């Protein structure tokens, strides 16, 4: 009988399989990863494989079996440490590790005191693959020939590894379009590309931003500061401080665009409550207001409103620059005695909010754990908006006053699904299911805002508050232009139309003001910070902000989109072409020229502030550069 011969590279294969199985089991036992369908389960199972094939595959380049074996042991120890660190971190924070969090010493402080709470006796199991590899090395006789894998063999191996990676990414893309460019959520990343790849991706993102940060020294701020000062809009003395001390309730309305307001769909009113607010005596309704978000979508709108700066052209600033120094609206309100909080029933790690809210100095995040969420009261992405508002107002009654609460709705989110019992109007009838359903979820959203107002009144929180409502970003993308053209009764949606469709409604509702108006100023989310702070009598003249008070006489009709497009009261600039409003006719670019430059300057300054983390050099109390920045 022939003696059994171990095949070439047995140990490498054993290492891959052992770590793969261990990782897959860990996903299921140590993390709460939400699996919605068999494809997601499949992705979760194969995702460790693509990285392991590469990492362990490096051993194919080594000549001596000794080196191969030590490399495999070292690599498996390192991978086990990474995985186990995540498990321990997850037990405490319910989140995966991201580099900046690792370097925040206070996190370690908290972790350190609770080592016993986050470790278990059976945790050695997380190193089981290391043990398997060592045992394999001991029992499998050294096989000199085995190391002679030739170039072609290696090439084939890495081609297979590459194919598996692409399969993994391709499948992930079907589940989560734009996963990597938008990088929404650590859970989603781990679920789709695996822990090991997630860390590589995290290292890439973080090192890119820390390099830019390291090169900045604050001197760049001088020019930006001059620009900001020179372009500041003076306050409206009648409005400044008129509502000092009131609670501030900001409601970010998911995916709500202006085209549904005061409009009908097959004879049905889509937003009866919001329509009534447009001519309410206590409401300033802005009908030429725009979102300015990029890939960071909801998180970008939060960023714009809090900081009066733009998000980034690539990626989500909430992810890439969650550790920066900012001077948010929340921080300012906090310093003025407000209890600052965000209310949103989702994982706190979504959009990296848990990390970013610390940077924005938001005192409390009422996240999914603060709400009672069940199958009955949730749909689509989670808790339905009506129970969300009901539960939120209940929590508001417990808050110290004055408070600043920023509420973020969820039901009117792509793909716009509702339970039967929440459907109030029929679907639209076009070839886009997305647009057809959108009207129904918008109708539900409208109803939920009515509930919010009723609840606030009932709980005695209404009179003494300012309620600001605004759409966070578009809900209907350009992919649905045909259906949109049909709805708007147009031949086609042109670039000019697309730009104007980025309009989202803004309502500043001030109970008792009696001064309600429809305001046609062309404006955007970047303007909210100074507007709100000024109504409360809080000075912003030293602040590094790019927006302007909407009530200022000097506010200019000009809104810049993150991609360089812009809208003024007379022109629209899109895809390098200038159009006249309201005709939509293309005109000579010269008319747009002065604005094109200004748009570039402002986007560029905003990027510089964020990429260089420049506000760490700025003292907003005095409006001066901090000493360490002045060379
Ligand atoms: C998630 C919600 C949606 O918490 O805010 O984010 P979006 O996908 O709209 O950016
Ligand atoms: Mn959103």
What do these coordinates show?
This protein is of the alpha/beta class. Helices cover 45% and strands 11% of the residues. It contains 23 helices and 21 strands. Strands 7-6-10-1-11-12-4-13 form an 8-stranded mixed sheet. It is globular and about 95 Å long. The model has no long low-confidence stretch (mean pLDDT 91). Bound molecules: (2R)-2,3-dihydroxypropyl phosphate and manganese (II) ion (MN). Manganese (II) ion binds next to helix 14.
Layout of helices and strands, plus pairs?
Blueprint: H1 10-30, H2 38-57, H3 65-93, H4 99-102, H5 105-112, H6 115-118, H7 128-139, H8 151-175, H9 179-182, H10 186-193, H11 195-215, H12 220-230, E1 247-253, E2 264-265, E3 268-269, H13 272-278, E4 283-286, E5 289-290, H14 297-307, H15 317-320, H16 329-335, E6 339-343, H17 353-359, E7 364-366, E8 378-379, E9 382-383, H18 385-396, E10 403-408, H19 433-458, E11 465-471, H20 481-487, H21 495-500, E12 506-509, E13 517-519, E14 523-524, H22 528-535, E15 558-560, E16 566-568, E17 571-574, E18 577-580, E19 586-587, H23 593-611, E20 618-619, E21 624-625
Parallel strand pairs: 1-10, 1-11, 4-13, 5-14, 6-7, 6-10
Antiparallel strand pairs: 2-3, 4-12, 8-9, 11-12, 15-16, 16-17, 17-18, 18-19, 20-21
Helix pairs in contact: 1-2, 1-3, 1-7, 2-8, 2-10, 3-7, 10-11, 18-19
Bound molecules: (2R)-2,3-dihydroxypropyl phosphate, manganese (II) ion
Task: Provide the helix percentage.
Answer: 40-55%
**Global Rg:** 27 Å
Poorly predicted tracts of residues: none
List keywords for this structure.
alpha/beta, eight-stranded mixed β-sheet, 45% helix, binds manganese (II) ion, five-stranded antiparallel β-sheet, 631 residues
